[in-house]
Design brief:
By secondary structure, chain A is mostly helical. Chain A contains 11 helices and no strands. In chain A, helix 9 packs antiparallel against helix 10. The chains are: A mainly alpha, B alpha/beta. Chains A and B meet through helix 7 and helix 8 of A and strand 6 and helix 3 of B. Chain B: Keywords: ATP-binding, Nucleotide-binding, Transport.
Chain lengths: 257, 256
């Protein structure tokens, strides 16, 4: 079953690539704006042998990874503290609901004002966008702690820190993992957006340069690269999730008892 | 050993005032096995949580070995009805049993020995490496009991621990509790809604009234110390005792 699913997926992708080759060649779309798949592949090959491409990729990944790391740490710490301190939740709820929906891209002018085209501009946007993903999930996760598990821990004299470590954190972990996976995807989107719009060095800036210099196949090749990155990030995040949550119902599946 | 005096618990919230426990007074001697029965919803769990220091009573007090209980005391272990939720699914059986011991500042060897001994006692010596969810319900409750044993409590509180397992497993677990009680001389306070179970297990049965709860009656169970599922349950004295407890519980339901 899995094999045939994979075969179908591969066949679908092959048809997609073939269409990408055939449609511009048949003159159905303007070849200058929609180059055939073959030419995009050629451009991709040239990009891969260019050191400037690799340093752009490195810049994008640096912004992504740093931003994600900051957002995840801040989100987890803030989420746990807000949940553990009784009145903090009520105090912060309305502010969170107000700040969360602000699109990160609306902060681009602010980022430019503060940091110009530095990495810090990218970080500001990445962190802002992915922080909320993590925070919200942590808040939900902490709420999901089983009262029986919590009472068990209390009855055995586990202190506040031991309860956070052994009960609260593992209970919240499935949610945290979901938050990290969402944040990882959002962080990539924002990293590329920031480079594209602000011109901070990275794949986004390289896409903008390709566009202004009419290097259309290169532009598509770089877009393909960002797509592959997104795919890898998602696959990686899911693998981490499965490892960390091997005990969880969603991962362990049915157990014969 | 355990003295409950004038215990009352009133829940107040969202404009509603619920008096769960009114005025409970009883005591449990060291090494005694006492069963509490009562109609469902009579505040048995509330009572046990107050005794265990998990809930603060609104009146009266609980004293363990002369000291007032104002939080979970070190000499007390709790076995919950919901074993599946009380065991931590991210820890293996051995780790679950060991976790409370880490708070007791025991040496590693001592902890290991206690865990091995406790698992051995409940017949799960080779399950230490399994996850709780890989075990059957009865085995999971055995793990929870082993965790309580390893903690070396003076008093063991059990809140309807066998309400969620099948009849045969339940009989086995009842015998396990009797055996552990005799071997280890722990004081046990066992809450149940099952009259037969209360009479079979207890040295004394306290019948609670409907909520707001008071002690309706106390009954000494004068069955032999040596009990088994086959003979004890057909003993005429057993039938007599269960009838008396049954009558009391019925009376409690009707509020007489």
């Amino acid at each position: 079953m899995r094999g045939s699913d994979a075969a179908l997926g591969a066949a679908g992708f092959a048809v997609f690539v073939l269409l990408g080759e055939a449609v511009p060649r048949l003159g159905l779309v303007d070849e200058d704006h929609f180059p055939p798949a073959g030419r995009i592949a050629g451009a991709l090959g040239r990009e891969l042998s260019d050191t400037a491409f690799w340093s752009a990729l490195g810049d994008t990944l640096t912004g992504w990874a740093l931003g994600l790391a900051i957002a995840v740490s801040a989100g987890v710490v803030a989420g746990v503290v807000i949940s553990v301190v009784p009145w903090l939740r009520e105090v912060t709820a309305s502010t969170i609901e107000f700040l969360r929906p602000i699109p990160s891209v609306a902060l681009i002018p602010l980022a430019v004002l503060l940091y110009g085209t530095e990495l810090r501009s990218v970080l500001l946007l990445v962190v802002y966008a992915s922080f909320w993903q993590v925070l919200i999930q942590v808040l939900y996760g902490v709420r999901d702690v089983d009262p029986v598990a919590e009472e068990t821990a209390r009855s055995y004299g586990l202190g506040a820190w031991a309860r956070v470590r052994h009960v609260l954190w593992p209970s919240a972990l499935p949610y945290v993992m979901t938050g990290v996976r969402l944040a990882a995807a959002v962080a990539l989107i924002l990293a590329v957006t920031a480079e594209l719009v602000i011109g901070a060095p990275g794949l986004g800036a390289r896409i903008a340069v390709a566009q202004t210099s009419q290097a259309v196949p290169e532009m598509y090749a770089l877009i393909v690269v960002t797509g592959v990155l997104g795919l890898l990030i998602n696959v990686g995040a899911r693998a981490v999730e499965r490892r960390a949550l091997a005990w969880h119902q969603s991962v362990r599946g049915e157990v014969a008892v | 050993m355990l003295d409950v005096h004038g215990l009352g618990k009133v829940y107040e919230g969202s404009g509603r005032r619920t008096e769960a426990v009114r005025d409970l007074t009883f005591s449990v001697a060291a090494g005694e096995l006492v069963c509490l029965v009562g109609p469902s919803g009579c505040g048995k769990t509330t009572l046990l949580k107050c005794v265990g220091g998990l809930l603060a009573p609104t009146a009266g007090e609980v004293r363990l070995a002369g000291r007032t209980v104002d939080g979970p005391p070190p000499g007390m272990a709790f076995v919950f009805q919901e074993y599946g939720r009380s065991l931590l699914p991210w820890m293996r059986v051995g780790q679950n049993v060991e976790l409370p011991l880490k708070q007791k500042r025991l040496s590693r060897e001592r902890r290991r020995a206690l865990v091995a001994d406790a698992l051995e006692s409940v017949g799960l010596a080779d399950a230490a490496g399994a996850y709780p969810w890989q075990l059957s319900g009865g085995m999971q409750q055995r793990v929870a009991i082993a965790r309580a044993l390893a903690y070396e409590p003076e008093v063991l509180l059990m809140d309807e621990p066998f309400a969620a397992v099948d009849a045969q497993t339940r009989a086995e677990l009842e015998d396990l509790v009797r055996r552990l009680w005799r071997e280890r001389g722990i004081t046990i306070l066992f809450v149940t809604h099952d009259i037969d179970e209360a009479v079979y297990l207890g040295e004394r049965v306290l019948v609670l009234s409907a909520s707001p709860t008071v002690v309706q009656q106390q009954l000494k169970v004068d069955l032999p110390v040596e009990r088994d599922q086959l003979h004890t349950r057909v003993d005429p004295r057993f039938a007599e005792l269960r009838t008396r407890v049954y009558e009391q519980v019925q009376a409690a339901k009707l509020g007489r």
